[in-house]
Design a protein that fits this description.
Elements lengths: L1 E2 L5 E2 L2 E3 L2 E3 L6 E5 L6 E6 L3 H18 L4 H17 L1 H12 L3 H18 L2 H4 L3 E7 L2 E9 L2 E5 L7 H4 L2 H6 L3 E5 L6 H12 L7 E3 L4 H9 L3 E7 L2 H13 L3 E5 L4 E5 L5 H13 L9 E7 L6 H9 L19 H16 L3 E4 L18 E4 L6 H4 L6 E7 L2 H10 L2 E2 L2 E4 L3 H10 L5 E3 L15 E2 L2 E2 L6 H8 E9 L18
Parallel strand pairs: 2-6, 9-10, 9-12, 10-11, 12-13, 14-15, 14-20, 15-18, 17-18, 20-21
Antiparallel strand pairs: 1-2, 3-4, 5-6, 7-8, 8-24, 13-23, 16-17, 19-22
Helix pairs in contact: 2-4, 2-8, 3-4, 3-8, 9-10
Family: Belongs to the aldehyde dehydrogenase family.
Protein name: methylmalonate-semialdehyde dehydrogenase (CoA acylating)
GO molecular function, one term: methylmalonate-semialdehyde dehydrogenase (acylating, NAD) activity
Length: about 500
């Protein structure tokens, strides 16, 4: 990555252990969403550049797969140290290109660090199984071997955390990797990759190409890529899953959501409302795990006025303002889409209690700001309920009982995450057992598990059996080879011919 006299960075690919200047004809501006200032230019890779990245990874796999577990472990240990030392610079890059507040960006780097720390346990994770004397003198054992060249395609909303959900564990397991980060905010991802190489990742093991849909399709189609991890929207993720699966790849696709937060009347009111608001409006709602629907049960419906009051008190500002609660949306198109959805909510009969459409931030009049927005009387069939808004818009629904809340949440096709706030262990357990959602928070607003547990979204929020992180990720990035072995003593009798299938 180089910087011109105008301080607009030129983003390069990363191939063979070094920056690779692109010969692309198509480039895209990367803008600061708080100011519209162009801060970088990113290339859309040519077919030849994608081919080079994959070929480089394929060649590197020949030696990397045979590198000892302890050697890979030491590289991951160094990587996590460098990541920990560079939280500040990475967060500043995230804020400049994504817009989220600096504290939130620092938190993102921290969650990415958790995933790298999990990769540091590879010597325990990549263990096979053995049965001695499975038959007379016969051993049967499993080997967890690297699958080959892996690839990852990530969304814009977590430019550090999402790559950390993919390549650290993949390369720690002995695979090589081709990463396509979001073209909207690539600079922090590139620094992450540079830190990995500074930690000792050999040239060719980790490669980066930039681009849009055409590059993603090339990755899906390439015959030398064996496994592909995707995190992003449902529309794109469904396409990626089908296309890559048709090309014979192992695929995991983590997609969109419509997450519900159920608040029981016995919940601690202040804690429940504060946590709900933080989940709904943090990162300006640009999280697939945001609780964007509040389901108020019974007397908790009387808390609506307090919910609106607390939401109104949030501060909107540039992400560099540490006192701001939420920053701008990532680009102009995102702002326009969110405002259009708010307009549709009004037109379709939802009750608008707090309107963030005309949000103005002094000194940042060109920013992509939308203020906290709250709708009541929201129903299925309304666009603001049926679509993932990906903006600071909270939909509120009221029901009489926990059973009604469970039925309402289960009727939604998505299953990424949900939360319940209650003081009742019985209610929490009932919700845990009966809710058909992959990730559940009990008095926790954003139920993303720690990285040594797998990310387990379900239903329309996920395609593929295995999710990122945890034990599922090891299964995804390795292939199991089962060996059945018998060794004969030198000079022993050959015995009789055995035409049965049994082992004796």
């Amino acid at each position: 990555m180089s910087t011109s006299k105008t301080e607009v960075a030129t983003i390069h690919h990363f191939i063979g252990g070094k920056a690779y200047p692109s010969r692309a004809k198509e480039w895209r501006d990367v803008t600061n969403p708080a100011t519209q200032e162009v801060v970088a230019r990113v290339p859309f890779a040519t077919p030849e550049e994608v081919e080079l990245a994959v070929a480089t990874a394929k060649e590197a796999f020949k030696t990397w797969r045979n590198t000892s577990l302890s050697s890979r472990l030491r590289i991951m240990l160094k990587f996590q140290q460098l990541l920990r030392e560079n939280v500040g610079p990475l967060a500043e890059m995230i804020t400049r290109e994504h817009g989220k507040t600096l504290p939130d960006a620092e938190g993102e780097v921290g969650r990415g660090l958790e995933a790298v720390e999990h990769a540091c346990t590879i010597t325990s994770l990549q263990l096979g199984e053995i049965a001695e004397n499975a038959a007379t003198g016969v051993e049967v054992y499993n080997l967890l071997q690297p699958i080959g060249v892996g690839a990852g395609i990530t969304a814009f909303n977590f430019p550090v955390m999402l790559p950390c959900f993919m390549f650290p564990l993949a390369i720690a397991a002995g695979n090589t990797f081709v990463l396509k980060p979001s073209e909207q905010d690539p600079t922090s991802t590139m620094m992450l990759v540079e830190l990995a190489h500074k930690a000792g990742v050999p040239a060719g093991v980790l490669n980066v190409v930039h681009g849009g849909a055409e590059v993603a399709n090339m990755i899906c189609d390439h015959p030398d890529i064996r496994a592909l991890s995707f995190i992003g929207s449902t529309h794109v993720g469904t396409h990626i899953y089908r296309r890559a699966s048709d090309a014979g790849k192992r695929v995991q696709s983590m997609m969109g959501a419509k997450n519900h937060c159920v608040i029981m009347p016995d919940a601690n009111k202040e804690q429940a409302l504060n946590n709900l608001i933080g989940s709904a409006f943090g990162a300006a709602g640009q999280r697939c795990m945001a609780n964007s629907v509040a389901v108020l049960v019974g007397d908790a419906r009387n808390w609506l006025e307090d919910l609106v009051g607390k939401s109104r008190g949030l501060k909107v500002g540039p992400g560099t303002d540490r006192s701001a609660d939420l920053g701008p949306l990532v680009n102009r198109n995102a702002r326009t889409r969110v405002i259009n959805l708010i307009d549709s909510g009004v037109a379709q009969g939802a009750r608008l209690l707090l309107d963030g459409r005309d949000c103005q931030v002094p000194g940042y009049e060109s920013g992509n700001f939308v203020g906290p927005t709250v709708f009541a009387d929201v129903k299925p069939g309304m666009d603001i309920y049926d679509q993932e808004i990906f903006g600071p818009v909270l939909c509120v629904v009221g029901v009489d009982t926990l059973d009604e809340a469970i039925a309402f949440v289960n009727a939604n096709p998505n299953g990424n995450g949900t939360s319940i706030f209650t003081s009742s262990g019985w209610a929490a357990r009932k919700y845990q057992n009966e809710i058909d959602v992959g990730q559940l928070g009990i008095n926790v607003p954003i139920p993303v598990p720690v990285a040594y547990f797998s990310f387990t979204g379900s239903r329309a929020s996920k395609l593929g059996d295995l999710g990122p992180n945890g034990k599922q990720a090891i299964a995804f990035w390795t292939q199991t080879k089962t060996v059945t072995a018998r060794w004969f003593e030198e000079g022993s009798s050959a015995g009789k011919v055995n035409t049965t299938i049994s082992l004796k």
